[in-house]
Amino acid sequence: MTISLVLGSGGARGYAHIGVIEELEKAGFEIASISGSSMGALVGGLYAAGGLQAYKEWVLELDVLDVAALLDLSFDRRGLIKGEKIFQKLREIVDGVTIEELAIKFTAVATDLRSGKEVWFQEGDLLTAIRASISIPSFFTPVEYKGMLLVDGGVLNPLPVAPTMSDHTEKTIAVNVYGDAPKPDIEVPREIEAKQSRLEKAKSMVQKHIQKLIQEEEEYSLFDIIDMSFDTMQKALIRYRLAGYPPDHVIEISKDVCGTYDFHKAYEVIEAGRIAAKRFLEEVF
């Protein structure tokens, strides 16, 4: 069966798309088209270019300190992170690939702040399209491109089904990483669990020290409030977009599987995607 696959935005939750893709392929589905926003565009673009396995192997090795080392601070007041270190690695995987060269149809969705419209990348340099689509406002610096000021596609369209409407495929399957389902129980390998445990303890000690210094016991930090606000807007936009462009099926990934910036938790998030895809296939097919 040929399918159009729609991969949603959600920061680190987008790792779940890897598990979903692997299970769909294992079940014999032919992915003939991909549309994605933000991490959905990154994972979908790498899959279409044949680089997803190499990317998966890389992110599975990252711990929180590795992720921190990749965050190259920007002197551009429009965003905290340049993203050059991350894209240096991506260039090692799929350098010089254009969207026209991909074996399957691909669309990366970004948002133009100057016009207030979404932008569909369906041609041109693949990594430029991905860089524009993942540019979370205030976190990554925006992309200047052909007179546009481009940021994360999720600002306007976190689950972009519309680009697949003209596809000649048998089914359209969307993957929503802001689902309300309970977080699945995932058995994490002992070495990964031990590494994360040490890091969480260090993180807790730092947080307690900061609270003591500022004599503050607030439940949420400013960063938490910004993150939660963005997540709330994403969920509302997804409901609105799905009402206007309903796919044939939606695979729901629990929003609680990780936080937006938990890029050191690739193993459990990929597995969450795999579990959700298996459940979907058992129930629907």
Can you walk through the features of this model?
This protein is α/β, with parallel strands linked by helices and 285 residues long. It is 43% helix and 20% strand. The protein contains nine helices and ten strands. It has helices at residues 16-26, 39-48, 52-60, 64-70, 84-94, 126-133, 190-214, 222-244, 266-284; strands at residues 2-7, 30-37, 79-81, 105-112, 117-121, 138-140, 143-145, 148-152, 171-179, 249-254. The strands form two sheets. Strands 1, 2, 4, 5, 7, 8, 9 and 10 form an eight-stranded mixed β-sheet that branches. The protein is globular and about 50 Å long. The termini are close together. Mean pLDDT is 88; it is low at 209-215.
Alpha-carbon distance between the two ends: 11 Å
What letter string, H or E per element, gives the SSE order? EHEHHHEHEEHEEEEHHEH
Q: Percent of residues in helical segments?
A: 40-55%
Low-confidence stretches: 209-215
**H/I helix tally:** 9
Portion in strands: 15-25%
Oligomeric status? single chain
Mind summarizing the main beta sheet?
A: 8 strands, mixed
Count of beta strands: 10
Q: Calculate the mean pLDDT score and round it.
A: 88
What is the alpha-carbon Rg in Å? 18 Å
What is the 3D shape? globular
What class would the helix/strand composition place it in? alpha/beta
